[in-house]
What does this fold into?
Amino acid sequence: MYILRLFVFITLLVSVMTAQTPQFNLMPYPKEIALTGDHFRLTKDFDISIFGIEDTDLQMYASRVLRRLSGRTGLFFPQDYITNASRYDSSDLKIYVERAGKLVINEDESYYLSISSSSVMLKAQTTFGVMRGLETILQMLGSDERGYYLTGARVTDEPRFTWRGLMIDVCRHWMPMDVVKRNIDAMAAVKLNVLHLHLSEDQGFRIESKKYPQLHLLGSDGDYYTQEEIKTIIQYAAARGIRVYPEFDVPGHTTAWFVAFPELASAPGPYKIERNWGVFDPTMNPTIERTYEVLDTLFTEMAALFPDEYFHIGGDENNGKQWNANQDIQKFMKENGIKDNHELQAMFNKRMLKILTRNGKKMIGWDEIFQPELPKDIVIHSWRGVKYLFESARKGYMGILSNGYYIDLIQPAEYHYLNDPAPVDSVLTEEERARILGGEVTSWAELVTPETIDSRIWPRTAAIAERLWSPGTLRDVESMYQRMEYISYQLEELGLLHIKNYDMMLRRLTGYRDFAGLKKFVDILEPVKIYTRHRQGVKYTSYSPYTRVADAARPESMISRRIRKIFEELMAGNTKNAAELKLLLKEVKERQTAVKEILQVSPVLREMQPMSENLTKLAQLGIEAVDIYLSKKKPAKNWHKKVEPVLLEAEKPYGQTEIPFAKTVSEFVHLLIK
Amino acid sequence: MYILRLFVFITLLVSVMTAQTPQFNLMPYPKEIALTGDHFRLTKDFDISIFGIEDTDLQMYASRVLRRLSGRTGLFFPQDYITNASRYDSSDLKIYVERAGKLVINEDESYYLSISSSSVMLKAQTTFGVMRGLETILQMLGSDERGYYLTGARVTDEPRFTWRGLMIDVCRHWMPMDVVKRNIDAMAAVKLNVLHLHLSEDQGFRIESKKYPQLHLLGSDGDYYTQEEIKTIIQYAAARGIRVYPEFDVPGHTTAWFVAFPELASAPGPYKIERNWGVFDPTMNPTIERTYEVLDTLFTEMAALFPDEYFHIGGDENNGKQWNANQDIQKFMKENGIKDNHELQAMFNKRMLKILTRNGKKMIGWDEIFQPELPKDIVIHSWRGVKYLFESARKGYMGILSNGYYIDLIQPAEYHYLNDPAPVDSVLTEEERARILGGEVTSWAELVTPETIDSRIWPRTAAIAERLWSPGTLRDVESMYQRMEYISYQLEELGLLHIKNYDMMLRRLTGYRDFAGLKKFVDILEPVKIYTRHRQGVKYTSYSPYTRVADAARPESMISRRIRKIFEELMAGNTKNAAELKLLLKEVKERQTAVKEILQVSPVLREMQPMSENLTKLAQLGIEAVDIYLSKKKPAKNWHKKVEPVLLEAEKPYGQTEIPFAKTVSEFVHLLIK
It folds into this structure.
């Protein structure tokens, strides 16, 4: 349980620091916070009153907060539900609110919180502001020998960006209602406010259409949201101040539509639901009226179902192959003076815009939809990068960033955290800056299932939530990691499975044996990054097992991060943590004895055997290298001959996982050899 | 992690035994099983074909089994969904089925399974039989150095009882859809086939009524199933061969109804949703026609919603106070020659029967509904005991048992396991025996929340499932415990949280610190049993925190059970495990050093401090006692003066938990002193 022991160490450290600067456990970090020095002591009589307006969503939100506070402290509070009937001037937490929040962009989500030794006051313009503030209150809970308290402070807070989203791809792997609901709860906990549902793909059409039931009946293997369920999701999110809007990705990414409507495709059918991953050829035919007829009917139906003002039409990754190969389309282009596929898609998009406008919706789409003649209230969703976002902002278009927030690509929280839609030092006019609305975390679902999705989204998404909420000048990575770990544990309470399923998956991998040894091993590893996993001889499909070590392993190993960090310190000439590093490497090495045994008991684990051997050798080599470095002598003459094969081998992935500090050791060693 | 280490020991032992008798991991244990000695080797080409009929539910069930097998083995099977189109004579697992199962009592659920080295064959009369057999196949998975296999065997299996149910009280604490769904999955895994939804109570009316929306709108705090959701539950269960039937508990347990309909009560309103636990006075007025009008309309609506042939009217725990105090009711009784409340309720029940009969339903109700004039197709649901079940069976009535299956009362699995609705040695005629249809596990919800309910229902319900499915002669408690532990881990894969939430709850109790020490402590304890928890000065309500040590602690501590067991062996003169016992007690004692520290860091844990001190002293005393016993000498003269206060104190509960072996040590010590 090394990680745990290490964690205690860090926590105790934080606890000590917390005594002076308790805001360390807040995430997203507020805009302004001033400690008052005293605390509000929680007693079993704690209660909440709401003044100003009567809003059922807010009353229920506050009631849930009361239950969460009661759950954490074990205190038996006297209030059941917070209503107008139970409103007292003597209440411990008094909430003042002016009006109900509206689920639109640029809505006021600011709040002011004051915690003194005698009472707590939370003030906001809108109910959404109150909700954000209530989450901050929950994070202000502390304890000492006298009991539980809320840290005395005055907090003035508001979001930096108005669009702080999470996109869930529910198509490539189906995500049932409970996945969506618990992720909405987690979003609210870190003040995200937009849920983007990616509802149609090559691999599935995931929403009931009453107009064209064949779409979901033939295109989903039975896995889709009924319209009632969608209403439930929308209501559940709205009650937490979160917008929900749909994406129907057209004209590409549409294989699943063509199972029911082969006549809409640009090449003859029949079509089957796609089971593989990649960019596929099937694309809607933009030159026939039937296409627009069906889309018009469907979008009109869906526009009525989703109250949000935005509607996403996708538009990405049309490879153009079916268009190029279709004689009628080529003829149409010639006749209408359309010079390339990009122009053809622009024509298609204009028709989409018309349909949406008629339905009172504003269009949002991926980078590719951008074309100069579009109205200025559309939103460009950038998967290609800040550069493109800036470009459209300069041309007067609003945009949101997802490039750098692809949470399924298993990159470090640090990378996402430092990725800013509008860095404070970027050369943008005030108007241009205002057009950058924020960003969205995208959870693409090739490699996740309902079992693993939480561990891919959380806790790293909390770091992005902070990027989108907190001041742009806040960029302290170490503080972020400390706070993220804390928030991660709090998210668990809401039902998130990002930690809970780890043990289960490891136990299953051992055939229900003791998995403590395996855990010590997997705690060090990380799944391979970006799209590497598709390029290692294993062909994944929608029905592959996502239950192996690569799926159980956390996106970021904290122990490996620490090892990497100290090596980097050494390379910068700072030796103060060298002893800790040697201890860590020794522990990594020693763990492998127990691992050896466990890797043999279970056939599914055998692919990891070379990895354990490599870890043993790499850790040993690392210790030697540190010793050489500290001795300030040159390594022995033939040392490099011995170490090169070890380093080369240690950098190889096994079972689609990698040793996260292999490259760093290699760099360090090569510095020594040089 | 003592428990885990102990578990490895047990598992390895089982694995060795498994080599000869692998059926040890099956639960419920089949009627007949013969090992063939060879194995069917699972390869990455494994596939399934279904012959006989085309049944979508079964195809989906088999597809899920294929995915679960793939998930456990990490093998990339080639089949996506099992359909008629993918049916091959060369398939590895060939399923033969005659007809679709019907969701009625006494339906055929038998199956025959043959696993040879070359193929697997599963044969059943009905699709339900196939589903039961598929779960057995999943439990037959083993592995060795050559890879994964299904143990070669011929299995002939069928249930002993036709009614194998789980009742979930979704009223006292609301249980959202995901709780119900994952529990249905778990039910299917252990071959349970009836889900009984307890839908109305003093604390909530939990289902949408379109006829009387005020019932659910005013009586549920917003927590109810819509009719669409109920249909989803029914369909989800049906696809797993599980019946779903509703209970509307009348005329008592009806406070929540009266919020909307105070005029139906036997005392004037207004009424509020009950927040406390107990038996309450509010009771429907059986002497006014309005009562029957409302019930007729509602039951007619609900009878159409639930396709099952049974409909539960509750009928329990009417304390009669409102009836006694109501002048009009007293007058009515006098005028109609009704001599007591029991007769009055009998009159009420006859009206209920009439309503149900007109709606094509058969009545089921708790013991109290029994009266001689009822038709013979009703079912008596016995919460009072086997005696009453036998009595009604003798009078020609069918019955099911729940007495002894109250899973919320935190009793040992052994107790439930040995509780038989119709013990093999009971004096019943064949006809009488046939009238005992089975039993139902009841999960009452005073002390559980969605967070803890799984840990109260599972894994102990698996033992009851075996009692209701397997031969009545199978009563080996040790084998049951071994197999139950194994099944418990498999249930986790289906999303059950009975293990997963343990760590989360412990971590929350420590304020997100390292909880390893706390776990070692709580692993030894058990929550107090039966209704004791309500009688220790803590007043629980529906909104109390169910997050303390008593809620986190497992219903049964396996380490404490082992300690108790060896003490019992010693008392029977068997000393072979004395050394193990001393080791266990020493470990218990040593654990307390780490615990001390952790109990101080968190205010919510402070109530447990005396318990840790008591454990230290009790373990020390236990070791001394064992030594004295082994020395065959009498204890020192004044020893009893020293030990009495320790024993007395150790038997006291703290924080509503108890030391499960305190009483046993006391007995042992008193034997020595005597």
